[in-house]
Amino acid sequence: MRKLLQKAFINTKSGLFFIVSDVLAVVTVISIISLILETVPALSDYASIFIFIEWCAVVIFSIEYLARLYLAKPWHHYSFSFFGIVDLVAIAPTLLGLGNLTFLKSARIVRIMRLLRLLRLAKISRTRLKDPDESLGVFTLNIAIYVVLLISALLVFGTVLYVIESSTAVFSSIPSGMWWSFKVFVGSIPVDAPLTALGSFVYVAARFVGLILLGVLLGVVGNILKQTLFSKTSSKR
């Protein structure tokens, strides 16, 4: 059993590892989308579907959490690690019946960062590539990382605004908060100012994060252009 779990969750050279990672990634994405749509008042008739998706995801995440806890030596190396805490926070509110802690369950977005296997892919991106197909793979990777960062930031700010400014029509749901955050990130689109002092702080933080994301985007584009030009130069030689 231990060897099978190691292949599924630890051994990155095992085919089972990638299958399990892909399944967990899909479940994570579905649970996040369900979590977001659950806050939309117009979709209240589908509450039973959202609850079903939530519990299916929690059962799967719980099995994964217990498996990683079983494989860790000693166990507290995982349970008190960053991702161990994130994994626990992602399932604890539902297991404890604390359905109103939406902002804690939204921590599942962080799981996607791990499921991208950034360590493995970052190693590829540092390699001097000569094969155009490999360059295309790095291009896709860089875009995927940026998209995940953007969606993560939108979800975090959208959830925070939904929690602290829920009395305002602009932030009546997580999607509306995410849309407001996106307009703040862009910077040139006028937005409604939050009513609370904490909301004003979130607004300033969103502006700052928007500048960071712009810098990341410029870095990604620059890295892609650099790799493409280097690949063409090397092929001519």
Protein model, in words:
There is one protein chain. The chain has 237 residues and is an all-alpha fold. The chain has two domains: 1-115, Four Helix Bundle (Hemerythrin (Met), subunit A) (Up-down Bundle); 117-237, Helix Hairpins, CATH 1.10.287. It has eleven helices and no strands. Helix 2 (15-38) packs antiparallel against helix 7. The N and C termini lie far apart (52 Å). Residues 117-130 have low confidence and may be disordered.
Distance N terminus to C terminus? 52 Å
Q: Tell me the Rg in angstroms.
A: 20 Å
Q: Beta-strand percentage?
A: under 5%
Q: Quick check: average pLDDT?
A: 79
Helical content stands at over 70%
The CATH architecture of the largest domain is Orthogonal Bundle
In CATH terms, what is the fold-level topology of the largest domain? Helix Hairpins
Order of helices and strands: HHHHHHHHHHH
What is the total domain count? Answer: 2
Question: What summary fits the major beta sheet?
Answer: none
| Distinct helical segment count | 11
**Under the CATH scheme, which class of the largest domain?**
Mainly Alpha
Task: Report low-confidence residues grouped into runs of 5 or more.
Answer: 117-130
What class do helices, strands and sheet pairing give?
Answer: mainly alpha
Q: How many strand segments?
A: 0
- Overall morphology: globular
